[in-house]
Design goal:
Elements: E1 2-6, H1 11-22, E2 26-30, H2 44-48, E3 53-56, H3 65-86, E4 89-95, H4 101-104, H5 108-124, E5 128-133, H6 137-146, E6 148-149, E7 152-156, E8 159-160, H7 165-177, E9 183-187, E10 192-193, H8 194-204, E11 210-214, H9 219-222, E12 233-234, H10 239-246
Parallel strand pairs: 1-2, 1-3, 3-4, 4-5, 5-9, 7-11, 9-12
Antiparallel strand pairs: 6-7, 8-10
Helix pairs in contact: 1-7, 3-5, 6-8
The structure holds NADP nicotinamide-adenine-dinucleotide phosphate (NAP).
Protein name: SDR family oxidoreductase
Organism: Gordonia defluvii
InterPro entries: ComplexI_NDUFA9_subunit (IPR051207), NAD(P)-bd_dom_sf (IPR036291)
Length: 251
């Protein structure tokens, strides 16, 4: 079985590619560095030739609704067309409740994810699985580094049920090997604010960081609107277990 992972050099793309290879799947690791540009379409047809499955783990770093919508919907359209030509199914990685207007009204990035889901649904119908997860523990690391000034790290309040990205990858791999429902929602074991995750992360690393919480993105994000009401999967790795496994690991 040949599977193309688009965005394979990113956080989730690497986990998914590694785990698929461990299951003896032939993986094509597609990203701009390997000559595949999902936004322009360059290299997609060649990469997908003979593939049975495509996993979309693409990302763009932006809070602009226009940039996010353009990126995700253009890439989804190009991948859907190439998948259709190759006769392949698509697994698209998305975010729980990002398509809910109450959640994404002030979050341009989430509007981009909603647009991505809509394009895939429109073009692929029953050849699509959308795996939505809540926020990953890793996101607290990414955001608190992006919004850092010396020892001060700014972190938006996000009440969620975070999970280890590696656990999310296991769910995606199962959907690749045995496609299930059209939409699968995945959450972590406990409800937590990502501010708490960031504080625990820096403490576990023994690094002095002052994590300053901010209100950003609207009330729904702070008040649990990111947590799915009826999750299909609740993952096992707790924050403490993840910290023990990853705090000493290099970036
Ligand atoms: N972080 C979370 O908590 C969370 C939760 C749920 C869902 N998600 C979703 O998970 C997805 C993956 O996130 P991530 O953090 O793993 O991403 P990431 O680490 O930022 O990696 C993004 C990947 O996309 C590739 N890429 C970017 N532009 C490209 C283009 N034009 N053509 C081809 N490849 C391109 C990058 O490689 P090159 O730069 O080499 O091209 C890289 O491999 C996102 O869609 C995100 O919304 C994230």
């Amino acid at each position: 079985m040949k599977v193309v992972v688009v965005g394979a050099s990113g956080t989730m793309g690497k986990y998914v590619s590694d785990r698929l290879e461990q299951r003896d799947v032939e993986v094509v690791r597609a990203h701009r560095g390997s000559g595949v540009d999902a936004q322009s379409g360059t290299g997609l047809a060649d990469a997908l030739a003979g593939a049975e499955m495509v996993v979309d783990c693409l990302n763009v770093t932006t809070q602009s609704a226009r940039t996010a919508k353009t990126f995700f919907s253009t890439a989804a359209g190009n991948i859907a067309d190439a998948a259709t030509a190759a006769g392949a199914r698509v697994v698209c990685l998305s975010i729980c409740n990002a398509a809910d207007p109450a959640v994404n009204r002030r979050m341009g990035y989430y509007q981009g994810k909603a647009a991505q889901e809509a394009v895939y649904r429109d073009r692929l119908d029953d050849r699509l699985t959308i795996v939505r997860t809540t926020q990953w523990f890793e996101l607290a690391d990414t955001v608190s580094k992006q919004l850092a000034l010396g020892p001060v790290a700014v972190m938006p309040h996000m009440m969620t049920a975070p999970l280890a990205a590696a656990d999310g990858a296991e769910v995606i791999v199962e959907q690749v090997l045995q496609p299930g429902p059209a939409v699968l929602e995945v959450r972590g074991p406990r409800q937590l604010d990502l501010v708490e995750v960031a504080r625990a992360l820096w403490a576990a690393r023994g690094e002095h960081r002052i994590v300053v919480p901010i209100r950003f993105g609207g009330a729904a994000m702070r008040n649990g609107g990111l947590i799915p009401d009826h999750p299909d999967v609740t993952t096992g790795t707790t924050l403490d277990q993840w910290l023990t496994a990853s705090a000493g690991a290099p970036d």
